[in-house]
UniProtKB/TrEMBL annotation:
The chain crosses the membrane at residues 33-50, 57-79, 85-103. Keywords: Cell membrane, Membrane, Transmembrane, Transmembrane helix, Transport. SUPFAM superfamilies: Multidrug resistance efflux transporter EmrE. Signal peptide: none annotated. It is found in: Cell membrane. The keyword Transmembrane applies. This is Guanidinium exporter. The lineage of its organism: Bacteria, Pseudomonadati, Pseudomonadota, Alphaproteobacteria, Hyphomicrobiales. It is a multi-pass membrane protein.
Length: 105
């Protein structure tokens, strides 16, 4: 259950990142409100996952999934570059997150 909560917290973290991109430096009200809401919700859910997972593992997986999700959506939605080196770095984050999942199983 803790891993499921961690996944939910990570997905909400991705929503926060996308909302903040659309907020355009806090100049757009509703995306800004969404960014704050998703940030608080993500940390709230993360704290419940951390009750049953090591803090370092939970935090690293949370930020890793969030980083990969936002980087991927940046490529798809915002035209961020998808260079081989960038994709390779994203793949390394995925390997690290998967590795932590199985080390702390």
């Amino acid at each position: 259950m803790a891993w499921l909560l961690l996944l939910v917290a990570s997905v909400v973290e991705i929503a926060m990142g996308v909302s903040l991109k659309y907020a355009e430096g806090w100049t757009r009200f509703w995306p800004s409100v969404g960014g704050i809401f998703f940030a608080l919700l993500s940390v709230f859910v993360l704290t419940f996952a951390m009750r049953h997972l090591p803090a370092g593992t939970a935090y690293a997986v949370w930020t890793g999934i969030g980083a990969v999700g936002i980087a991927t959506l940046g490529i798809v939605l915002f035209g961020d570059p998808a260079t081989p080196l960038r994709l390779g770095c994203i793949a390394l984050i995925i390997v690290g997150v998967v590795g932590l999942r199985f080390v702390e199983a």
